[in-house]
Automatic annotation (TrEMBL):
One of its GO terms (biological process) is fatty acid biosynthetic process. Homodimer. This is 3-oxoacyl-[acyl-carrier-protein] synthase I, chloroplastic. Its EC number is 2.3.1.41. Pfam families: ketoacyl-synt, Ketoacyl-synt_C. InterPro entries: 3-oxoacyl-ACP_synth-2, Beta-ketoacyl_synthase, Ketoacyl_synth_AS, Ketoacyl_synth_C, Ketoacyl_synth_N, PKS_Beta-ketoAc_synthase_dom, Thiolase-like. GO terms for cellular component: chloroplast; mitochondrion. Residues 46-450 form the Ketosynthase family 3 (KS3) domain. Keywords: Acyltransferase, Chloroplast, Fatty acid biosynthesis, Fatty acid metabolism, Lipid biosynthesis, Lipid metabolism, Plastid, Transferase, Transit peptide. It comes from the Eukaryota. Its main location: plastid. It catalyses: a fatty acyl-[ACP] + malonyl-[ACP] + H(+) = a 3-oxoacyl-[ACP] + holo-[ACP] + CO2. Catalyzes the condensation reaction of fatty acid synthesis by the addition to an acyl acceptor of two carbons from malonyl-ACP.
Length: 481
């Protein structure tokens, strides 16, 4: 166990209740001159943003603990596509969700109408609220000021099945056969809208669609609503359901997908010399974020704290990242400064790591520009097991990061057969490792425990670097603590 930091003028403690049993007290940071010299962190409990609940829909099911257990086991969720006939596609596999049930979360009539993108959003959002102790219809939920509670769940592709079916009906049967739900269920903000209407949240409600960085942008924007005093609590994250013919076909046309049809479970292999493209995934990952003051008042189960973030654009190319990683490295530096974290404090990174030829190394180059000594930093790739879930990727990987922080175990990057020498970092190849995280990033992830009397929180810090077109983002960065 590392020693706790001594309080400094830059991080003066504020009044807080005694630590509760459900707080992760195990984590701490190494006392050092470097840590003491870190930029100033937010101390106002009205502006400090904490995570109190997590919910997901994934290829490994809808339970957060079960999801992380299977990641720790190094299990691949990739397999042949059987949702449609993919026999004529050059890529015939994906991280397809099977056996999904919304029972207890969506009524049967609406469930039959909804695009999977919307179903995943509603289920993960309600499960996150349950974890936060404010389940829909419960007495604690009745005490929430709904006018100061919002929803910000984005998607990269929107209701793609509804859109595809509508176009097909138009071509084959005429406009009269287009469902009246075609437009509402295809647009990207409908997941947030339906969830907000269902639970009665009347605060900020919209979506952000920025390809693979969607979830991260939503976390960043949701936290800023809380910091500016516009909301007490936000549901934020991403959802995606694009494993349909037009979705797979579109990415095939971009030449972005792996074609390792003979062995799909090993197809997603970030940082491996033989990688040949990413593997499509789907699902949703959602966090409940609220002000520290609000969470304390309702005795919420605080899991982690959001420290800060930054967004930028590398203004380079529609799909290719800058080889020097400048857009990402500058965004990391900005977000570290905003979060009050020194680069030397970071010892864990959950990388974007899509298994693309250019993206994987460009991301590593960016990381090296900020974190000069790779020897103490572990990086891993969630996508090696669940595929690239596009707009939901950030949400699902944020949850994996928080679980790494609270359990002290980082999941492996599987399919590490012939690693790139240039990576240099410990990629946790093929087998999980025990690791007490200090500070790190989700798509940079990690943890930091600030001195605050006897009330300690793991911290989360977010950073996103976007490419100009926001189409095939291969360099997105987020830091969680």
């Amino acid at each position: 166990m590392q020693s706790l930091l001594v309080p400094t003028a830059a991080s003066a403690p504020v009044a807080a209740p005694r630590a509760r049993r459900n707080l992760p007290m195990r984590l701490s940071v190494r006392a050092s001159a470097t840590a003491a010299a870190a930029p100033r962190r937010e101390t106002d409990p009205k502006k400090r943003v904490v995570i109190t609940g997590m919910g997901l829909v994934s290829v490994f099911g809808n339970d957060v603990d079960a999801y992380y257990d299977r990641l720790l086991a190094g299990e691949s969720g990739i397999g042949p596509i059987d949702r449609f006939d993919a026999s004529k596609f050059p890529t015939r596999f994906a991280g397809q969700i099977r056996g999904f049930s919304s029972e207890g979360y969506i009524d049967g009539k609406n469930d039959r109408r909804l695009d999977d993108c919307l179903r995943y959003c509603i289920v993960s959002g309600k499960k996150a609220l349950e974890a936060a102790g404010i389940a829909h219809g419960s007495k604690p939920m009745e005490k929430i000021d709904k006018t100061r509670a919002g929803v910000l769940v984005g998607t990269g592709m929107g209701g793609l099945t509804v859109f595809s079916d509508g176009v097909q009906n138009l071509i084959e049967k005429g406009y009269r056969k287009i469902t009246p739900f075609f437009i509402p269920y295809a647009i990207t903000n409908m997941g947030s809208a339906l969830l907000g209407m269902d639970i009665g949240f009347m605060g900020p409600n919209y979506s952000i669609s920025t390809a693979c960085a969607t979830s991260n942008y939503c976390f960043y924007a949701a936290a800023n609503h809380i910091r500016r005093g516009e909301a007490d609590i936000m549901i934020a994250g991403g959802t995606e359901a694009a494993i349909i013919p037009i979705g797979v076909g579109g990415f095939v046309a971009c030449r972005a997908l792996s074609q390792r049809n003979d062995d799909p479970k090993t197809a997603s292999r970030p940082w491996d010399k033989d990688r040949d493209g990413f593997v499509m995934g789907e699902g949703a990952g959602v966090l409940v974020m609220e002000s520290l003051e609000h969470a304390i008042k309702r005795d919420a189960p605080i899991i982690a704290e959001y420290l800060g973030g930054a967004v930028n654009c590398d203004a380079y190319h529609m799909t290719d990242p800058r080889s020097d990683g400048l857009g990402v490295s500058s965004c990391i530096k900005q977000s570290l400064e905003d979060a009050g974290v020194a680069p030397e404090e970071v010892n864990y990174i959950n990388a974007h790591a899509t298994s693309t030829l250019a993206g994987d190394l460009a991301e590593v180059n960016a990381i090296k520009q900020v974190f000069k000594d790779p020897s103490g930093i572990k990086i891993n790739a969630t996508k090696s097991m669940i595929g690239h879930c596009l707009g939901a990727a950030g949400g699902l990987e944020a949850i994996a990061t928080v679980k790494a922080i609270t359990t002290g175990w980082v999941h492996p990057s599987i399919n590490q057969f012939n690693p790139e020498e240039a990576v240099e970092f410990d990629t946790v190849p093929n087998v999980k490792k025990q690791h007490e995280v200090n500070v790190g990033g989700y798509q940079f992830q990690g943890t930091l425990i600030p001195p605050k009397q006897d009330f300690f929180l793991p911290l989360i810090f977010l950073c996103i670097a976007m490419q100009a077109s926001q189409i095939l983002l291969d360099l997105e960065v987020t830091i969680l603590s």
